[in-house]
Amino acid sequence: MKNIITTLVLLFAIFASQAQMRKWTLLECVEYAMEHNLTVEQFELDLENAKIDKSDAVGNMLPNLNGSTSVSSNTGFSINPTNNLPTNSTAFNVNAGISSNVTLFDGLRNVKQLNRAKLNAIANQYRLDDLKDDIRLNVANAYLQVLSSKEQLKTFKAQYAVTEQDLKRTKELVESGVVPRGDLLEIEATAASQQQQVVNGEGMVLISRVNLAQLLQITDYENFDIADEEFEVPPSDILNNSAKVIFDKALSFRNDIKLSESFVGLAEEDLKIAKGAYLPTLSAFFQYGTRYSDVTQIPDGNGGAYTPNFTDQLWIFDGISYGAQLNVPIFNGWSTRNNVKRSQISLEKAKLQLEQDKLDLETTIQQAYVDVGTFDKAYEAAQKTLEARRLAYEYAKERYDVGLMNAFDFSQAQSRVDNAEADVIRTKYDYIFRLKILEFYFGLPISLN
């Protein structure tokens, strides 16, 4: 029974450890970042506010309706509501009414406000989508940094394992008198240096994982890791398109450009709204009211008077008023003219910003296009260098094994191989990321497959 319980505990611990150490793919990282990024949540709230502004603009075009009532009692001098004569008594009064106002014409400013609210909602959506684009790129870059650090760590460990074998063999050669003891010390120094590389590599893996976790708003760094996958350079025909073709396509869908265009549209609507203040405003109103007072006296036709009850007074003393009001702006201290000028300036600034954003996008795409070619060549050169370094190392190893090369020269040959392998890993992931950036500007989703 005791053995069964122990086995169950061990299995539970294994399952719990596996559940905690979830291996994240790139797609999972991107989707999680979209759902949990604090800035995304703030921009989504701004979008909700913009939708409420659109509802406000619609409401401003509709008639309002308000009801009012008042109940009062006064003792002493007052005005009799029936005959408007002074009296000195105690009276109980009730007044009630409803009113409605509607703007018939205000220089079409209410229509322009609605158009502006719609554009503002669209602009906030573009702003949110643009932020998500940036997050995708940042997450992909951080993800590739983790992959690069892990691959470099594997290389460091493999190099250290080879050196340990060389160290063991050198000890045997020293004991047999084939090589001097100084060679053993040189190999031991190389092994210590590579062991330090392994430690530094483990630190780089941890740092890169923490950086990615922070982008995802994850604080459990110890139990966060990405999927153990090795990625080769994915096939791509993006360079079959010129930088101009990529730029023209980017203009048609990039959210940052759409956002700048929507800002121009907002500025145009603001100018129309400002100009609408030059025109007259026509509004209509309707009011219905009634009252009750316990001091009301109405002739009864027989020379006397009586006080109608509450319901009868509400019908007797009700009334309706309605009409229209026209306001014509004549002079307002140049405020309307100045508002129009400010709106014109804002419009010009929005147009200039749009052109600047287009220039920035073109510059970015041109640089990304050049980077892809540059890092592609750098990656090819690093591979050729590594191949040459490995051949030189094999030749040096053969000479060292027969005592024709000292340990210092042999360790230098091995160090050159180590550096070449590190360059291959670095240039590979640099090239992959630049390639994905260029594809992203061409409208292709970020994927490492």
Automatic annotation (TrEMBL):
<comment type="similarity">
    <text>Belongs to the outer membrane factor (OMF) (TC 1.B.17) family.</text>
</comment>
<dbReference type="Pfam" id="PF02321">
    <property type="entry name" value="OEP"/>
</dbReference>
<keyword id="KW-0998">Cell outer membrane</keyword>
<dbReference type="InterPro" id="IPR003423">
    <property type="entry name" value="OMP_efflux"/>
</dbReference>
<keyword id="KW-1134">Transmembrane beta strand</keyword>
<keyword id="KW-0472">Membrane</keyword>
<keyword id="KW-0812">Transmembrane</keyword>
<dbReference type="GO" id="GO:0009279">
    <property type="term" value="C:cell outer membrane"/>
</dbReference>
<dbReference type="InterPro" id="IPR051906">
    <property type="entry name" value="TolC-like"/>
</dbReference>
<keyword id="KW-0813">Transport</keyword>
<dbReference type="GO" id="GO:0015288">
    <property type="term" value="F:porin activity"/>
</dbReference>
<protein>
    <submittedName>
        <fullName>TolC family protein</fullName>
    </submittedName>
</protein>
<dbReference type="GO" id="GO:1990281">
    <property type="term" value="C:efflux pump complex"/>
</dbReference>
<dbReference type="GO" id="GO:0015562">
    <property type="term" value="F:efflux transmembrane transporter activity"/>
</dbReference>
